[in-house]
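Please go through this chain and its backbone structure tokens and walk me through the local backbone shapes. Keep your notes short.
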Amino acid sequence: MKPSDFSKQNHHKPSEPFPIRPVLIYTCPALAYAAIGLIQWQVPLSALAAWTAAALTIGFLLMKIQSHIRHEIRVNIDLTAVMAGILVFMIWVGLDGYYPLNPLIPHISAVTGPDIHPPSWELVGVRLFTSAVILPVMTELFWRSFALRFLINSRFNTIPLGSFSWISFLAVNMLYGVCHERWLPGIIAGAIYSILLYQRKNLFSPILANGTTQALLGIYTVSTGSWTLWSDFWSSLVIFFGETVFIPSTITWWT
């Protein structure tokens, strides 16, 4: 991989307006997910209601913007992406317990742990479907399509999908990792998904890899009762929005 030089072919006049509409298109599903997560932290909203709202809201938004993003997502059979997803799953589970968890998310174990009580099968089904099918599209659209290019040029829609720069690669994947309680495999996962995009120039590849990881992680979590592995990106949003972490005693992920 070699950094691309966009200084010539992507020269813009200072008066050219900032592409607000493209930014909103690529970020609105993630912003909606963040909003639902913040609501979940602050009001007594059940986990089933929160995850159902997330699935419906994000699914609706992805359908609304599909005409703007479908040229980046070419569905095909990509065994390399599947293998990459399996590798990330093995790393995620294999590293567990060998590194300190993200100190920015101190309460996650109390919220997701089995000391509360096991989740209902309805919640398991909604959570697994959302994590394996819907969230990978939202996640890769935001991190791999938008963020990787935005850190190359704020007018990201002028940058070809899968363009590489060291700054965007390192910054995006470090931040992606910090957005997880298990930050170390998060960073590694982000790097692997990004490399897939650089190689394939097709957003479907990291989506497929991410979905494979999430499906395996969900199956492993449910089958072993390792509920803390299902820690949430939502939990870190409270930190990044400058809020104090507050978990009312009436709220759990499983009720």
Summary: Residues 117 and 171 are 38 Å apart (CA to CA). The first helix runs from residue 20 to 42. The radius of gyration is 18 Å. Residues 3-14, 107-117, 233-255 have pLDDT under 50 and may be disordered.
